[in-house]
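Reminder to self: tokens first, then the designed residues, so the page reads top to bottom the way the pipeline ran.
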């Protein structure tokens, strides 16, 4: 009984320390929205004490998420119960959730940090929400008139496997049959890159990467991240390590990874033969030591532009 009381007291202390009882998480924010504009937007729900927009720590570009702290829990409740119309800013419907204690903070305080929950959240966002207002009966009636839907499953899977991966993910929204077949079509996806995929206002994030790799990661032999590294954090290494156990070639050029995240990757991706770490300025000799210890088949390591490597 005393132990339970201590746990409750600890949770209350955490809430007080981080203002979790008055703080919300805001996602899907347009990259054109400034911190001042976002603060003014949420002021219609109540008094805003502080608004923090998360930015890439190297290039200082917004990552499309923020934390808003209200002056009272009443104001927070009003924001959480807002309608879709009230939460639309700059043409985007923002996601508003209760803020939670960071998993990494818990890890620092002595508990076990577990990152796979990111994949669970992605599956809910990418798959479940797409069908929240979906009328399968109407779609079935429409598809019954389409010749392509009369093809057998194997033929449709073959066709879908030839569609570029970003458009293939959109095919999952057509109907439940196409959702299942589109996900089965990834089995021939041996490599993936992000060249010319995003426009200048977009970019590859940890969540977007996870939504791709949760579908095809187990089949990948080659992964090239060099075309869109600016919005990725070192948590992306946890995502790759979790979903891509068969990787042989990976290009991580320009990513802000550390020795610890490189160790996480190499502990799971032990089949690596080639890795590119160009301009990965936070990787040092310690990270390379873990790389060579964990990946016995490694043949090629590109360290161009990395000044932290001394060879000692």
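Designed residues (312 positions):
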């Amino acid at each position: 009984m005393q132990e339970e009381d201590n746990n409750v007291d600890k949770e209350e202390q955490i809430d007080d320390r981080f203002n979790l009882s008055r703080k919300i998480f805001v996602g899907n924010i347009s990259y054109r929205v400034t911190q001042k504009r976002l603060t003014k937007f949420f002021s219609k729900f109540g008094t805003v004490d502080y608004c923090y927009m998360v930015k890439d720590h190297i290039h200082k570009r917004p990552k499309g998420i923020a934390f808003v702290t209200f002056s009272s829990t009443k104001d927070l409740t009003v924001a959480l119960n807002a309608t879709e119309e009230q939460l639309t800013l700059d043409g985007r419907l923002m996601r508003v959730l209760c803020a939670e204690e960071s998993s990494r903070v818990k890890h620092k305080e002595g508990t076990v940090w577990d990152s796979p929950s990111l994949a669970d959240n992605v599956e809910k966002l990418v798959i479940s929400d797409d069908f929240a207002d979906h009328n399968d009966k109407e779609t079935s009636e429409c598809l019954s008139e389409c010749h392509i839907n009369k093809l057998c499953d194997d033929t449709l899977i073959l066709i879908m496997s030839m569609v570029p991966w970003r458009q293939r993910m959109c095919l999952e929204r057509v109907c439940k049959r196409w959702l299942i077949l589109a996900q089965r079509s990834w089995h021939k996806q041996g490599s993936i890159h992000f060249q010319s995929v995003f426009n200048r206002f977009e970019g590859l994030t940890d969540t977007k990467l996870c939504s791709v790799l949760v579908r095809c990661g187990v089949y990948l032999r080659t992964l090239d991240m060099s075309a869109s590294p600016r919005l990725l954090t070192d948590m992306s290494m946890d995502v790759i390590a979790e979903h891509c156990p068969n990787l042989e070639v990976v290009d991580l050029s320009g990513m802000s990874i550390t020795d610890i995240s490189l160790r996480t990757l190499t502990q799971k991706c032990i089949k690596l033969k080639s890795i590119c770490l160009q301009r990965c300025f936070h990787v040092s000799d310690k990270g390379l030591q873990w790389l060579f210890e964990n990946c016995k088949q490694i043949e090629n390591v590109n360290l161009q532009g990395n000044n932290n490597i001394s060879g000692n």
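The chain has a mean pLDDT of 78.
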